[in-house]
Amino acid sequence: MFDPTAFDNMKVIVEGILYDKDLDGDYLIIDRDDFMNLSKMNREFSITYKKNNVKSNVSCKFTLAATAKDLYSELLTSSEDVGCYVEQTFFFNKEIEAEILQRSLMLLQNHTAQQFNVFHNIKQSFFEKNKTETSLIIKFINKITEEEFDQLEELIHITEIMLQWFDEKY
Question: Are strands 83-92 and 116-124 parallel, antiparallel or unpaired?
């Protein structure tokens, strides 16, 4: 039996929280990816979900990522300062007003002490004139370590609030 890494432990926590919500009928898991880049030894796990109601047009992708440096630090030096980078991406199937996105970021700032960078993307189809998609990417600057599991739960709870808020405004 192997000793799981911090990445593995954190992935299990995120999966457990979100799959429990899926089983309860609150959310619908719509995608899941678990990648390992063998040339760089980086790992990335993402799970995409949305509110489990017919009217929901917004989904959230919750991503954990760990670098080779984190893996080596944990395995070779038994460092306590290893963890994962967290990213949240919200997807909308139409263009969203900038004011709604700005208010959602204020909501996020009010609920977490984590620092983050924000990216806003708008995609428009060449083939379908009226098809526009928007995404809001939130990349948290600092890694979350195993000792900070409660922050992972907090971030997932914040996505619940934001998904609810987007559904109401959308």
Answer: unpaired
**88: closest CA among 154, 41, 35?**
154
pLDDT digits (tens, 9 = 90+) for 37-48: 999 889 999 999
Find, among 73, 7, 68, the residue nearest to 34 by Cα.
7
Question: What gap in Å lies between CA 101 and CA 35, rounded to an integer?
Answer: 29
Q: Classify the phi-psi angles of 25: left when phi > 0, otherwise alpha if psi is within -120 to 50, otherwise beta.
A: left
C-beta separation of 63 from 89 below 8 A:
yes
**Rounded to the nearest 5°, which phi and psi values hold at 166?**
-65, -40
Query: Could you give the count of Cα atoms lying within 13 Å of 105 in the half-sphere of its Cβ?
Result: 18
Report which residue type is found at 114.
Q
Q: Is 28 helix (H, G, I), strand (E, B) or coil?
A: strand
Assign residue 75 a region: left if phi > 0, alpha if psi is -120 to 50, beta otherwise?
alpha
How many whole angstroms separate alpha carbon 15 and alpha carbon 89? Answer: 17
pTM over 0.70: yes
Q: Which residues of the chain have pLDDT under 70?
A: 1-2, 54, 78-80
Which of 99, 101, 87, 97 shows the shortest CA–CA distance to 141? 87
